[in-house]
Amino acid sequence: MTYDLIIIGGGPAGITAGIYAARKKLNALLITKDFFGQIGSTGRVDNWPGEMAIGGMALMEKLEKHLRQFSIEIKTGQKVAAVEEGVKPLPAGRREHPSSGFVIQTEGGEEFQAKAIIVAVGRQPRKLGIEGEEKFLGRGVSHCAICDAPFFKDKQVAVVGGGNAGFETALDLAKYAKHVFLFERGKAASADELLQAEAKAGGKINILLNTELRKVEGGDKVQSITYEDLSKRKIFQQPMEGVFAQIGSSPAVDFLAKLVKLNKNKEIAVNPLTMEASKKGVFAPGDCNDTKFKQMITAAGQGAVAALGAYEYLYKLKMKNEKR
Predict the structure, then answer these.
(1) Residue extents of the structural domains in the chain
(2) Model's pTM, two decimal places?
(3) What pLDDT was estimated at residue 89?
(4) What is the CB-side half-sphere exposure of residue 20 using CA atoms within 13 A?
């Protein structure tokens, strides 16, 4: 079956695109691993219009519920492995323009075809790149405090990263953990002053600037870390039962291969007026593209723009094919 539009991703951009695609009566399919994403792992959201303060997971549940009110096919628990150009044969031996068809393959082996696609996959956490990180992933090393904080009740844990995400993670963990160490390699943290003040006031978070983790060690689970004091050039070992990496993220667009143009940060280059990528028929709203501001509200707005851009593209494609 060939869909008019396939949307890849279940974050704010993908969900909004799905709502707009359904309102435009497009034959659309939304594929997503889940409706959790980066927002779901955020402890508190206080900059979403209409919600003074709401948990990230609760907000994503609301968005998913809104999407499901519309007539759109949804496949969850699926991750896209590859997207390729596909040319659909037409009667009398004619063929559509090559840019009018795409084949989407999932890691589970399923295959779908669409005339246009919206890539709204957001970003994935950056790895620390240190010894022991991969070995202890899921056994003390984590990227999500909302998911895993309760497992560290009365334990000593580390957070790596001095931005907003790092401080939010430290504050979430402080509700459960005995003590939280926050490591920032810079001479100053970049998190909002309000978050820094809240972390300092609680008494359970120790902020270590100009430091860098070097190693995670343990048996079946994390038991200790090795870090360097960059100003003193000294190495220290510290007992630790959990490590939460919060050093930023990168676009999750590896499956696109060479289909679209990426910038030096591997973000999809788009036309900001339509969210269309360098390949006609491919649209990329949200954090995976090269626009400047990475915010939930801008991602949602771009999702609407992408869906309307795709609708316009599909209409022009239809007119073009009818003239042949």
Answers:
(1) 2-124+249-322, 127-245
(2) 0.77
(3) 53
(4) 21
Distance set, CA 186 to CA 18, 181, 205, 249 (Å): 40, 15, 17, 18
Which tokens sit at 105? Answer: 């393959």
- The DSSP string of 259-300 is SS-B-TTSPBPEETTTTEESSTTEE--STTBS-S---HHHHH
- What does the alpha-carbon distance between residue 11 and residue 297 come to, in Å, rounded to a whole number? 11
Q: Domain spanning 2-124+249-322: which superfamily?
A: FAD/NAD(P)-binding domain (3.50.50.60)
User: By mean pLDDT, which of 60-64, 99-103, 208-212 is the weakest?
Assistant: 99-103
Nearest Cα neighbor of 156 from 208, 204, 90 is 204
How do residues 202-259 score in pLDDT, each as one tens digit? Answer: 999 999 999 999 999 999 999 999 999 999 999 999 999 999 999 988 898 989 978 9
**282 neighbors 309 (Cβ within 8 angstroms):** no
> In the CATH scheme, what is the code of domain 127-245?
3.50.50.60
